[in-house]
Specification:
The complex is a heterodimer.
Chain A (H helix, E strand, L loop, with lengths): L3 E8 L9 H16 L6 E5 L3 H4 L5 H8 L6 E5 L5 H14 L5 E9 L5 H9 L14 H16 L3 H15 L13 H6 L3 H4 L2 E3 L2 E2 L8 E10 H7 L4 E10 L14 H14 L8 E3 L5 H10 L8 H6 L16 H4 L4 H17 L12 E8 L4 E9 L2
Parallel strand pairs in A: 2-3, 2-4, 9-10
Antiparallel strand pairs in A: 1-7, 1-8, 4-7, 5-6, 8-11, 10-11
Chain B lengths: L4 H5 L12 E4 L5 E7 L4 H8 L10 H16 L6 E8 L2 E10 L4 E9 L6 H17 L3 E4 L4 H9 L4 E7 L6 E6 H11 L8 H9 L15 H7 L5 H11 L3
Helix pairs in contact in B: 2-3, 8-9
The chains are: A alpha/beta, B alpha+beta.
């Protein structure tokens, strides 16, 4: 396989964007083309989950490639639920690594806020099993709540640990211009004060309002290229060195141990093996914290901490900026936002920014290796990526 | 015989009990005070509401225009039985709510404007307004409308308001919704918060001056940047948009 480098990046604010979905995909792509110093590419992959249903736009890749004046480059949509972004990067990686293409543009975009929050929640819930889950009213928050309750009983995680994740990620998002939520929150304000139950009500017990990610619109883009092209562009040499993907049962209740996220474990192991590193080598990570519990559990499943120890590392401050392994420096899905199809590309954007040393006030010192975990469904389709700075 | 026209035009307010100030902690750990202001305070509020006229987002422009007229009418005695409450954090104005008494039993909710977004600032201020009508003045129900979808979610859905579509609301003449005492009692445990009395130092800070909001709602990112960027392959329009948001332009 050929080596694959990330040579250009771009992103929109993750917020409410009142633009056509094709333009939400195109903006970050334009920024990435400018960043890379390129004006054409061989192929365009568009990561998106719901444009046909939510935005009345099918054939999104055709719209995007023309909006960008990149025709006649090939173009297609990659849909893999909330893991669409990393799946599209993986597909782009395969295209360059195989020698099929030299330069591919991977842009992710979603416009969820064209519909109201109830419809957006219902739309995301369509990724659950139609007959065994969805028809009984299961939503992603309800699945996450049941998972959290079980995890709390088993490993001693408390609501305070969940709130600590939220506080940390909101703090990080304050340093990220593109983050959806620029709101300082405190443990006292969301957990301890007499007003906490109103400030931070239960959404699906034990998950509260500040344990859940916002519904966001947004786009992000990464351009991947062969070593030959990358060397000519004179950008910091950030290489995509590891890619892993794994699946698990569609229904959460069919898993032997519902608190095990085997697809996370498998995808991360594959990515680390391909990269030839261990979890200990990672300097900075973006984990898929659509709900605060997921940051804790994923930090264990990918191998950063032992089983049941993620919340203890959080208590020790190891995962905050300045800690041993900063997690979700962008603010994570929790505070940076979660435009589902774009999320995985947004995670990669943050890691590439960190490895370039361009993350400004949230820069992790001397970051050389970064990791992303993009979690589709409720853990039934997960894609992990490892990036490494080489120069 | 000389006629004092002003005496005819100026309505006479009915006596109502004052709103006792209260305070609460927000999600960010800051303590917010909600208190009643008098006519003399109105000019200090108007100057902070006026910039919202130009915020074409979530109906801030419509609400600001209407609120300014209501505040001016209150200040210059051209509305009957109006009151104004403000929410402040460290003296900074973060929300304004107002309303009036339609009659002894029915309140007419006017506006709820949050000058700091997020953290339920507006929702807490609205709850205080309802508390004033139903608990302190002792009315039976309050007529409510919403200009924005956010308001609809916060009031009509969260409180489960009853329809009073046979009654036109004073805001735009649109059909009214009503918060009854019974509905308010149901919401009391989850939506209505606040502690009394307000510590002396907090109250004095709030009363000393109504300070300008430090992070008021802003106009959305330039919507035309989308169109312009179609003819600008450099992406400069997008960068300019970012600089504008950062205050560099």
């Amino acid at each position: 396989m050929r080596e694959v480098y990330a040579v250009g990046i771009g992103i929109t604010s993750f917020t409410r964007l009142e633009y056509p979905i094709s333009e939400i995909a195109a903006y970050p792509a334009m920024m990435a083309l400018k960043d890379a110093g390129l004006s054409k590419v061989d192929h365009v992959y568009v990561a998106n989950m719901g444009s046909a249903r939510l935005n009345h736009q099918s054939g999104l890749a055709s719209a995007v490639v023309d909006t960008l004046s990149l025709t006649p480059a090939g173009a297609e949509v990659i849909e893999n639920g909330p893991a669409s972004g990393a799946s599209a990067i993986k597909t782009g990686f395969m295209a360059v690594a195989s020698g099929l293409h030299d330069v591919v543009l991977v842009t992710g975009a979603e416009r969820l806020r064209e519909v109201n929050n109830l419809d957006a929640t219902d739309f995301v819930a369509t990724l659950t099993h139609p007959l065994a889950e969805y028809i009984y009213g299961v939503t992603l928050p309800s699945l996450a709540a049941m998972f959290t309750r079980l995890y709390m009983q088993k490993y001693g995680v408390t609501e305070r640990h969940l709130a600590m994740v939220a506080v940390k990620n909101h703090d990080n998002a304050l340093l990220n211009f593109y983050a959806h939520l620029h709101e300082k929150i405190t443990l006292e304000g969301i957990l301890d004060s007499p007003e906490a139950m109103t400030n931070n009500p239960f959404v699906a017990e034990p998950l509260r309002f500040f344990d859940c990610c916002p519904v966001s619109d947004g786009g992000a883009c990464v351009i991947l290229a062969s070593a030959e092209v990358a060397k000519k562009l004179k950008k910091p040499m950030v290489r995509l060195v590891g890619v892993g993907q794994a699946t698990d049962s569609h229904c959460v209740h069919e898993r032997a141990e519902p608190t095990d996220l085997l697809a996370v474990r498998g995808a991360a192991a594959q990515a680390f093996k391909m990269a030839g590193i261990t979890p200990k080598d990672v300097d900075v990570a973006e984990l898929h914290d659509a709900f605060t519990i997921l940051e804790i559990v994923e930090s264990e499943e990918v191998g950063f901490f032992k089983r049941g120890q993620g919340h203890l590392a959080l208590e020790r401050g190891e995962t905050k900026l300045g800690g041993k392994l900063p997690i979700n420096t962008s603010g994570g899905l929790k505070a940076k936002g979660h435009p589902v199809g774009a999320t995985g590309v947004g995670q990669a954007h943050e890691i590439i920014l960190q490895l370039r040393g361009a993350a400004e006030k949230r820069q992790v010192k001397d970051a050389k290796i970064g990791f992303t975990c993009n979690f589709g469904g409720f853990g039934n389709n997960v894609v992990c990526l490892v990036f490494k700075r080489e120069d | 015989m000389a006629i004092d026209v002003e005496k005819i035009l100026r309505p006479v307010d009915n006596p109502i009990p004052p709103f006792p100030p209260k305070y609460m902690m927000l999600a960010g750990g800051e303590e917010m005070i909600i208190r009643q202001v008098t006519r003399e305070d109105i000019p200090d509020i108007l100057c902070h509401v006026e910039p919202l006229l130009h915020v074409e987002r979530d109906y801030y422009d419509v609400v600001a225009a209407r609120l300014i007229s209501e505040l001016l009418a209150y200040y210059r005695y051209r509305v009957q039985d109006e009151y104004v409450l403000v929410a402040q954090i460290n003296g900074e104005l973060v929300a304004v709510v107002n309303g009036r008494l339609l009659n002894k039993d029915i309140g007419m909710s006017y506006h709820t404007v949050a000058l700091r977004r997020g953290l339920r600032v507006g929702a807490h201020a609205f709850a205080a307004k309802m508390e004033y009508h139903l608990d302190i003045i002792g009315q039976k129900e309050v007529l409510i409308v919403a200009e924005s979808p956010i308001g609809f979610r916060r009031w009509m859905i969260e409180y489960g308001l009853e329809k009073r579509f046979n009654m036109a609301h004073e805001l735009g003449g649109v059909p009214s919704w009503a918060l009854t005492k019974e509905l308010f009692n149901k919401a009391r445990e989850t939506l209505v918060v606040g502690r009394r009395p307000v510590p002396k130092h907090l109250l004095e800070k709030a009363q000393a001056a109504i300070l300008p909001p430090t992070d008021p709602p802003k106009a959305p990112a330039d919507l035309l940047a989308a169109t312009r960027s179609m003819y600008d392959s450099t992406g400069t329009a997008l960068m300019a948009q970012r600089w504008k948001q950062e205050g560099r332009l």
